[in-house]
Amino acid sequence: MATSGNRKSEKVRRANRVIQQRTFILMLILGIGTFLLLFTKLYQLQVNRHEELQKLAVSQQTRSTVVSASRGTIYDRNGNILAISATAETVFLSPLEINETLEESEKAEDPADKVSWSKDSLAAALAQILGVNEENIRKRMDRVDSQYEVIKLRADEDVANKVREYINENNVRGVYLVTDTKRYYPYSTLASHVIGFVGDDNTGLYGLEAHYEKELEGQTGLVITAKDNAGNDMLYEFEQYFDAEDGSDLVLTIDTTIQYYLEKAVEDIVHKYNSTEGGQGIILNAKTGAVLAMASYPNYDLNDFAAVRDPGMLKAIQEKKATLGEMQMRQWWNKSLNETYEPGSTFKPLTLAAALEEGVIDMDTTYTCTGSIHVLDANIHCTASHGFQTLKETAAHSCNPAFITYGLRLGNEKFYQYMKSFGLMDGSGVDLDGEGQSIFMSPENFSELDLACYAFGQNFNITPISLIAAQAACINGGYLYKPYIVDQMLDEDGNVIWQHDNTPVRQVISEETSANVRECLEYVVAEGTGRNGQVAGYRIGGKTGTADKGQTGELIVSFMSFAPADDPEVIMLVTLDTPDRGCGTYPSGGNMVAPACSQVMSEILPYLGIEPSYSAEELLGADTTVPNVVGLTIEEAKEKLSAKGRNLNYRVVGEGDKVTDQTPVGGAIIPGKSVVVLYAGAPKPDTLCSVPNLVGRTPSEANMVTTNAGLLIRFTGTTDSESSSVRVISQSETAGAKVPAGTVITVQLGDGSVQD
Description:
alpha+beta, 5-stranded antiparallel β-sheet
């Protein structure tokens, strides 16, 4: 019995041990499984979702507010503000809150708890104040689940104040204003293609605003505030503030005064000659490459860059010949930079410079023009049979066969090398985006006929900015400079943090060669196709250009000029695209563009402090300032008017001993040899004089008619020409206008016989 009991006890113990072992194993498995599950979950939370949960925790525990950086200001070279950021306010709606407010108002029994406005009245009021579409506001209000619907970005402060006043007076809930910044352009359309504009997010989209986006935008700041359980901001000791870093300011090489003169001249010739494709102009400092002015027409208002202003473009949109988007792109197009063209004869100074540098021609070279030249199987014509010519005369006559001959003497390889050295293959490198790509024949396919055409500026395409940089190298001593627009960058305290380096890219030709090129180009203006580019008192060099636009029969006419011719400070290139050939003026750069360049030069050279150098004969007719002689005796007045350098004549009206009045008044600037009328006791007539129509008259006719009208005349333009074709082409005062006696009428002379 005992043995049997022991056996049973042993079996029970073994069974218990098995159960214990199985239980242990099961618990071990369950423990490991639980650990693995927990480990996996923790790994997912702490590793895989770490950043997500961290951001969630931060958002629950803190509130962050962005502090906008102020975009850098853009100045011209004299400190005039061209672009600036100012405080504005963005207006937005919370449709959810508006809807809840109106529902509460409907349920309210006390009239004092009801609101006086509705969605319709609110939309109408905001539309009127903000100048936006009422229907669009109303649609946004219907998005009742939304808490943020922008209805006006960057409203001006006075507009924002009107919105705020309306909200307060009518106890409106759900309309909010947040502080922002807005870009303003004080000069509106001036230099629009250079400055560019920013988008809705204040990011530069075009021009310098885009090219220097990184420097202008600055660094956004941040305010981080701790929140309690209820989501309320905690005390300031729990707040962190990260300062915004304002963008850098830009100081440009652009001069607003010079820019104005250039833009006006380009716009005038576009309208005068009915150009369908507009025009462009560039003025550089010839010795550094600094861009003093860059104009492209048609232009646009930087403060409303999406609006199309040009009548021709608006007509195309109305007649559905073009879309709004196409016309916007066209008005933003910078013809000086984005567009390539065949330069025509304004390229000839480069051929001349290369041929002189290589010694294949010299200043004693002559050429006899028979009216054409045969190259391979092509017969290339000239504008006339010029006959025997010196080197300077071939430039003055813009003789195609002569320049083809110079190019052929250089040879394909050398000619191609010089185009590369002048920077034409790689572009100018100016600090603006979107420079057009030059179009040249590849070296392996560059034939003798290609060389012949290239030598006088046809069958290849370059941008105006790359051409003027190369032209400057021809006349400034041979140095190629990269054109540039930004001269300095300033920090928020006005300290210079970056300065442009004026080191030239390379010297392409020698100073001796450059001096010879200047001499030839000065002769072009003095005696050749550039006569209409003359400016009284200044030595001007230049080159005209008239180029075909493919096989269409349309033209691009242009003129390059520089001054002073012996030591150039400024160089200018103006082009007119597709002028009307039936406008009554012979279509050429010398006739259409050179007079405009003469006008600009006559304005900017004195402005830049470049003194005129009159010859003895010119000095007699040079402008002078009328002294104030009222109150002096007649003899004292005569002596003052006849003082050395004044060259003023006088006429006395009356029999008194003293001057009681005078015409013109003291301080007026009039031409030398003009007559000043002195009133000695006699009353000065107050009758206004009628301005005669002088356009089309010879200089002598214009002088006689103006004098008979009781007015003074001042001649500009082609004042040094013996051609019988010189006529008045414009006048400062409109014909028929009434002006005081003694008013100076400035007229511009042009030689209509000029051809290119």
